[in-house]
Amino acid sequence: MSSAPITLVPGFWLGAWAWDDVVAALRADGHDVTAITLPGLESADADRSTISLNDHVDAICRAVTAAGRPVVLAVHSGAGASGYAASDRVPQQIAAMVYVDSGPATGPLEPGFGDVEKPLPPTWEELGENLDGISDEQLETFRRRALPQPGGPIRDAPELTNDRRLDVPSTIICSAFSSEQIKAAVEEGYAWLGGLKELRDVTWVDLPTSHWPMWSRPKELSALLGDIARRASAD
Q: Domains along the chain?
């Protein structure tokens, strides 16, 4: 039996290219996989002034629907908000959700953010994320290819009205922080993890590494996604 198709969504500042190593590994293993670039992140010249969270949700919904059968939807980092909203809008198109160092957000990521866009911070120290296992070459590529994140998806609240999303099997891949640390953060009430108080089928996986495991541990991440896709097809 073939595995479920896999749709990959990158986090802030990134396009589909961020998943290249994972895509290559999954395709080599026989999986049908697509990585997407969200609106406003297509090029340096893209108009980011009117991009909303709903635009990102729409793009994800189009991608998963185009697959023709229910997909494994893997979202990274800040794409957890748009990914969770997509599972609310088209739960029948999603066989399983995977949050890669991310979470099912129930509120705005930064409600007070007022700018048109958010550039990648000028230093890695200011970024404040775990860089374990990422090479200098990878960091240089990140710096060179990163584009400003549209402001709308940062400050918009996801629209969540369909309780069918609560039954979508969801895997939380914890890389920059452990699953125990994330579970503690859930209890503290962070909006970017809000869905973890309401989802009914959650699996926790620890993959200790950077906030960008698609770069620092691509083989291991690909294997996890492939296993989830095979199980999703069998269910």
A: 6-234 (3.40.50.1820)
> Tokens in use for 40?
């406003």
- Quick: pLDDT tens for 127-184: 999 999 999 999 999 999 999 999 999 999 999 999 999 999 999 999 999 999 999 9
Q: What is the pTM of this model?
A: 0.97
Rg of the Cα trace of the chain? 16
**Of the candidates 127, 76, 103, 129, which has an alpha carbon nearest to the alpha carbon of residue 189?**
103
Between residues 116 and 234, the one the model is more confident about? 116
Give residue 1's Cα distance to chain centre.
Answer: 27
The DSSP 8-state label assigned to residue 120 in this structure reads: P
Token pair in block for residue 20: 């290249």
Contact 202, 232 (CB under 8 A): no
Q: Which two tokens stand for residue 214?
A: 């698609």
What would the 3-class secondary structure string for the chain be?
CCCCCEEEECCCCCCHHHHHHHHHHHHHCCCCEEECCCCCCCCCCCCCCCCCHHHHHHHHHHHHHHCCCCEEEEEEHHHHHHHHHHHHHCHHHEEEEEEECCCCCCCCCCCCCCCCEECCCCCHHHHCCCCCCCCHHHHHHHHHHCCCEEHHHHHCCCCCCCHHHHHCCEEEEECCCCHHHHHHHHHHCCHHHHHHHCCCCEEEEECCCCCCHHHHCHHHHHHHHHHHHHHHHHC
91-118: burial string, b at 16+ Cβ within 10 Å, e else? bebbbbbbbbbbbbbbebbeeebeeebb
